[in-house]
Amino acid sequence: MDETSLRWLLDSALAHEPPMGPVAQRSLRAGIRLRRRRRARNAAASLAAVAAIAALVPVVGGALSHVAVRPAAPDHDATAYVMSGHSAVATVTPISETTGRAGRPIPVSKGAGPMAITPDGKTGYLSSLTNPGWVTPINLGTGVLGRPIRAGGVPDQIAADPDGKTVYVINAGSNTVTPISTITNTPGKPIRVGLRPRAVVFTPDGRTAYILSEGGHSGSVTPIDVATGTPGKPITVGLSPMAMAMTPDGKTIYVANTGSATVTPVSTTANRAGRPIKVGSQPSAIAITPDGKTAYVVNTATVTPISTAANRAGKPIKAGARPEDIAITPSGKAAYVTDSGTGTVTPISTAANRAGKPIKVGKEPDNIAITPDGRMAYVVNVGSGTVTPISLATNTPGPALKAGQRPFDIAIAP
Amino acid sequence: MTAAQEFVEFATTASPRLRRMAFLLCGDWHAAEDLVQTTLAKMFVSWPKIRRQDAEHAYAARTLVNSYLADKRRRRSTEVLTADLPERPVQPPGPETRIVVLDALATLPARSRAVVVLRYWADLSVDQVAELLGCSPGNVKSQSARALSKLRAVLDEEHEPRDIWHG
Lengths: 414, 167
Description:
Order of helices and strands of chain B: HHHHHHHH
Radius of gyration of chain B: 18 Å
Helix content of chain A: under 10%
Largest interface: A-B, 30 and 41 residues
Shape of chain B: globular
CATH superfamily of the largest domain in chain B: Winged helix-like DNA-binding domain superfamily/Winged helix DNA-binding domain
Distance between the termini of chain A: 64 Å
Largest sheet of chain A: 5 strands, antiparallel
Oligomer: heterodimer
Low-confidence stretches of chain A: 46-66, 71-75
Low-confidence stretches of chain B: 77-94, 160-167
Strand content of chain B: under 5%
Radius of gyration of chain A: 21 Å
Number of strands of chain A: 39
Largest sheet of chain B: none
Mean pLDDT of chain B: 79
């Protein structure tokens, strides 16, 4: 066997090559995620030296990774929890809505990642990006940590069901979902779902969870019976979906198909996908107004409103240079879109579907969370490592809260 | 054109070839696609630097091979390595060349397999392979010689007529 015949033999091994998925687009999304994680880790490493000071001084320590808003009755002030993401300095820091200040950070030995908060606001379930597979329960009232729970692989999302009895850990690495009982704090059997699961939503009655999977070619939504942990038949949607949102009545899920520039409505009563709705390029975030009438989809440079009654897209709204995330106020009157291109947040009036004057925040703002009473929004500035509070009555940003150098994500409690 | 657009353009042009290279390394199309995605995602992180150096393709090949080798190292604890070919009880006479070649490649250690793919399929020179793998040209030569003699032994044995029903 000479070199020429070896070359020929190697080529013949490539016969029956299957068609390729949208690898380029998927790589871009994966690359963006990877970059954010690396930045957060690097910032955390450089901050390790000041960790001791951060524990004493009431500022948010370490590299911030997430903000979760603890649910509260609308007449009560809420608390936002900021997660910092390095194993040596990982902390969870409360920010009080009343004082606008950061409280004493809670150190977490297993590292930090996305956090789920039970609907009563008493317990947080913190996943870990540095120690994948570990979930730490935190008593948010006292700051006391529970025993870490071993559950799954690299978490992409973690969420509590509406009655707060189960927390679902979405493992993008192992294509499974691990339920954790919040009563016993023990993990259940992992449930197999579609390739690369990304997100979960629960129906308001808490009976069914829907898991969004990015898939190899087409994405899918898998219903899971929460009581038994049994997955149903996956519902095929568009290419490489990255985000979904459920209408408040729980009847429809809108899936943003990042790869095919469409949004697929999925009926939860029939468990069937409707006709895809054409939106802008690379839709990657989606939110629905509390009255369930409009879904807002964040595209590459615009936001597309979709009327849920007609399942029809309206005129795209210009929303900065590189819009990232969206949150809608509890009153449903305004949507807020972060723009990492210009370091601003664009308010959108939902009545007129028109963008207002951009609000200046820090560098590369990414995720945004709004308090349940609708008074404040918190924006994570990935580039400057801070959190900017915005008073929504006047759309005025407050002074940035110090929060490490490279935050990269935000989790909003149910 | 923005950096992200340039990256997507590069990724679109480069991914078919990268996927084929990845397949020859790991022998599974799904795993190959995952390897390509990992490679490109890593490249995106340092994209401005890679673009300045004007060496995207070399960088891609190096990242792909390193990701493959790292993956192999991680899996070593759970995978049982064997020099024997998997049994194929229902193998028809004159099996597809494709499967024979893949089985033969699977008998090589990860690094030798990378050397074979880079030298004889990607047509890189001994020096280029040495630079890519971070070893000496002499090491590449000895690795390819050993890999070739092993492949020869396995492939020639496969090509010899034998009694497939009785052993």
